[in-house]
Amino acid sequence: MHYVETFDRNQMMMTTWDSMVDPESTARLIDAFVNSLDLADYGVKEMASEGRPPYDPKGLYKLYIYGSDNGIKSSRKLAKSCKVNVEVKWMLGGAEPDFRTISDFRKDNIDSIRKIFHEFNKRISGAVEWGFTSVDGSKFAACNSKSNNFTKNKLDDRIKWLNGHIEEYLRILDEADEQEDFEDLPDKLTKELIEEKLKEARERLEKYEGYQKLMEESGQSQMSLTDADAKLMKSKNGFVVAYNPQTAVDSNTHLIRSFHMTNRVTDHGLLDSTLEEVRKESEGIIETVADRGYESEEDMVKCLEDGIIPHVITDEGKDGYELEIVYEETEGVNVESTEPEELAKVLHGGVIPEAYKDVISNIEVREVRRKACDETEKEASEKSVYGTQEEMVERAKEGYFVRDPERNLVYCPKGEILRQKCIKKNGNIRYANKNACRHCPDRNKCYKGKNEWKEIDFTKDSLEKPCRNWLKAEGKEPETRRSTKGKYHFERKKIVRFFLKPDRNKTAERMCLSEHPFGTIKRAMGFDYFLLKGLRKVTGEFALMCLGYNIKRSKNLLGFEKMMELMATESH
């Protein structure tokens, strides 16, 4: 059979490095873009001036941006690319930095990458027409395993488990000491081995109790040992220790206009902060769409004050949102202005700005009567009427859920600890302990239903709630609830209420906008986890991912020639 002819490996040839790179290679775009940057504007740290000459920082930036465009992110793989990849050799002029040099450069200059990402967007903004934005978040795994992440409930279970093992080891040792004979112990279980396991269990118990004390003192809901900023989050694939980056994707180009790195478990209240950079770079009013996970009245009001129209998807049967702000009497406001300061004044004055006439209606100034807590009630709500934790547990075993406001936990009738799960919109705190309920032999006395665990809500001034099924099973009647209610008074305030109606045509496009970039970054580019640790460093790492995506997308939109023209323009 006749095959395609191949070259002779020993044949000599005359060529240039430039001819070995495709004329429309993305490497040429990256090379032109980085060469046009004034690195002094990005705070690039000076290299060592003594000994061997340092590597050109522009070459290292080219290497990292090329890696983000081609799914190469580890410093060792980038170092290997310097030896075997023709395009990388062409960009770096044959320089072959080792992996440690590559890694240290990224570590020292991680903050500059976000600025370079925004500079790229600025270059192409003159060649595209921006539309509205779509905001969404996605979970990216952090450099921290689940075994090195602890929640308060997880620590409670570990401490309980270890206490049980310690008691069992001590019982075995006591029985053996009384009989003065260790020969009756099970096979391969000696006194020395038991004492070793007992010592190990006590050390682990001391470590976990230290974590628990630190979390209660600092108010943290969870702790990660490898990456302190990473949090345990729920994703479509279960729970994962991760970050939750937010992106603002343009509707016309599908380019990522901006992003906001967070370690927040949910997306509530993240609209305004995600669009901060877009607001600075834009003139006039910005429109954005988001799913129901962004439903936050305070955040939507803040967006309107900053010149951002939030089209947040509503629940079925709802046309929009009833929003409320404090009334402020103002004079001489400009209803036609789109400046954030003027927009805020107009809204607080009870007038609809001209730019919001299509989305805001039924605005009115109203006087309402609101409850105001005295200082004594605030202080009382932070204390318990019970003296010690033992008293709380004993009271709970009588058939009550008892709340400890100082430690922010609840004791159930079985004596188990329920930790805070969330804070509801009405301000009530919800407590639960899934593992304790699943293994509780008396859970049928506590609650009945399809759920596998009990959830109990407390207001900030209540300390106990009766478990009616438990009391009924024991033939008892519930007593009067104990609370920390102190003195309060009512105040009359003027507020502005209005109705915000999202544009359904825009919200219908949300999924086609936000999911596309995340899918490309995670699947096509292979960036579904972070290598670096800490919120500041993963911000720079995610900026590289977004820059790599935008380079691919821009080249497809504008073509190679137009991109080369834009990339070669020097920054100002």
How large a portion of the residues is in β-strands, by DSSP E?
15-25%
Q: Report the end-to-end length measured between terminal Cα atoms.
A: 61 Å
Q: What is the helix content?
A: 40-55%
Approximate shape = flat
Q: What's the total helix number?
A: 21
The radius of gyration is 31 Å
Low-confidence stretches: none
Look at the helices and sheets and give the structural class.
Answer: alpha+beta
Q: What is the mean pLDDT?
A: 87
Question: How many β-strands, per DSSP?
Answer: 19
Sheet with the most strands: spatial strand order: 17-16-15-14-13-18
Biggest sheet overview = 6 strands, antiparallel
Can you put this structure into words, describing what you see?
- The protein is α+β, with helices and mostly antiparallel strands and 572 residues long.
- Among the domains are: 18-131 and 548-567, no CATH class; 146-224; 377-486, no CATH class.
- 40% of the residues lie in helices and 18% in strands.
- The protein has helices at 26-35, 57-69, 75-84, 86-92, 99-108, 110-125, 152-179, 191-218, 271-274, 276-281, 297-305, 340-348, 375-380, 389-396, 434-438, 443-446, 468-473, 504-507, 510-524, 535-558, 560-567, and strands at residues 133-137, 140-141, 149-151, 222-224, 231-235, 238-243, 246-250, 256-260, 286-290, 308-312, 321-326, 360-373, 400-404, 409-411, 417-423, 429-432, 455-458, 464-466, 488-500.
- The strands form five sheets. Strands 17-16-15-14-13-18 form a six-stranded antiparallel sheet.
- It is flat, with a radius of gyration of 31 Å.
- The mean pLDDT is 87.
